[in-house]
Fold this sequence. Notes:
- The structure holds two protein chains of two kinds.
- By secondary structure, chain A is mainly alpha-helical.
- Chain A has one domain (about 5-320): ABC transporter involved in vitamin B12 uptake, BtuC, CATH 1.10.3470.10.
- Chain A has helices at about 5-25, 40-70, 85-100, 110-130, 135-160, 165-175, 185-205, 205-210, 215-220, 225-245, 255-265, 270-295, 305-320; strands at about 25-30, 35, 130, 135.
- In chain A, a hairpin with a 5-residue loop joins β1 and β2.
- Chain B is of the alpha/beta class.
- Chain B has a single domain, classed as Rossmann fold.
- Chain B is globular.
- The interface of A and B includes residues 73 and 206 of A.
Amino acid sequence: MKMKNVILLILLALLLIASAVLRLLITRDVDGSLSLAMPEEAFLMYRLVPLVAALIVGSALGVSGMGLQVLLRNPLASPWILGLSSGAGLGVMATMYFEHVSGNAVLGGQALGAMAGALLTLLVVFGLSRRRGGIDPMTMVLVGVVVSVLCGAGIMVFQHLVPMGLRGSFTTWLMGSLPEVESWSRLGILGAIVLVGISLIAWWGPTLDAACLSDDEAKSVGVDLPKIRRRLFVTSSLLAAIGVILAGPIAFVGLIAPHGARLLMHGSHRTLAVGTALVGALLLLAADDIRQLVDLGTGRLPIGIVTSIIGGLVFLVLLLRGKGRV
Amino acid sequence: MRLKLSDVTVRYGAHTAIRSVDAGIDGGKIVAVLGPNASGKTTLLRTIAGLQVPSSGIVELDGANVTKMKPHDLASKIAWVARVGEVSSSFTIRKVVELGRYALGPSRQRVEDALAKVGLLSRCDSLWFEASAGMRQRAGIARALAQRTPGGVLVLDEPTSALDLRHLRMVGDVLRQCASEGDIVIAAVHNIAFALDVADEALVLRDGQLTLAGNSTAVLTPSSLGDVFGVDLAWATDDAGNRHLVQP
């Protein structure tokens, strides 16, 4: 690894630590004033849980986006291009509807609904994107868009069927939010899966590099394209699904984090995967810091809105700096 | 090293791209593949390079079916140069050339030698998306040079379409050197003068069928090529006494 990249990775890690410390210390008093202070032990958990969740979700979405951008040869690819968020949303909406109709809580609740919806969507997209024994990137993008639209229609059907009162909580879920209450064991398991997923994609870095050539050139230099595409699809999808399960559909992190990392460092996808994980975690944590600081008088903004605003602006800057090339 | 094509046919749905092609090529030869647009040149080269599975027939390299080779074996025996290279990431030219060593292990020396041979060593830190078409074409050739094993096969699809005269000569010299080290060099070209200059043998395709094959000076004549391309051609001699095919 080049020394410049090592220094950049260290700087990113330091920024991440600073952002995490800030998240722990930002305190908004009852009168609305801001201060920096360590919370009492009883409240510490409510800051540590979203902090750890932000690290897991941000890095997972970022690396998932990077994997999908290579898989689909599309710089605009993100976890949501495969219909993952709308699939998960449909799962949540279906869960809420059946809970409403039956009057009983569905085992696993909304998280299970989100996971089932996301996985079902991915299976459909994967099944319909296969051509000549392998994944066809262009077909996958088109199928993902169509499946997204269909899931969106399904969501609207369920929204129409549930009472008005339930629609608000679903809309909140759609905005994305970091959990403030979550069991450490669940966070630990999901964090471990994300760590393995990111490590695998980093390990496959040299293959991802060669897969950036055209299909013929990649095959000629020795890449087993069907194999690496299957691996990328499964791993990227799993990472994105964990992000959705923990925090709902957080926008733009999966799209922006890989571009942010590429802007900082040119090199192998092995280095880029680590950089993207750090940028993704930093983006989400910084967005969470910002939402603690901003008070519009109606409570804190959902984090999905903050990432959308930051992500949109950053993306525009990237587009303008790159003269249209992202 | 011997490359043998036996009754090779490739169909894309109802369209037959190449039909019943038989050919044999020995190591140390440069073979030019010519023909009008859509005559099947790229399909033939992709099939030879193991990138296209023939609908029928077989391509063998020293008796081994190239379409059944494992990716690593294919990379170690056959190097491919695409007409237009693609890179979907912000890599430098050097990084693109290094990808030629993906299956065979990194070699800084091989990469720098390859870059030097196509005149890109001083420009190798340029980003791919900032490079001109000619630089990209030379980078594609350099990648194949970094990958090739002497005595293997080098397959090039219109490798000179974006090159100026100096680099055309440079690439011609590179191909001759590869052939002198025992490579089979097969290149689709539209530049007949280049083909006459570097190729030992020529294959001429029309409508997917191999219509002419043999020694390049015997095959690439005004009458045969005029017939294939549907134009009038004649020899012209320049001041130095060199003969050129021209349209009168």
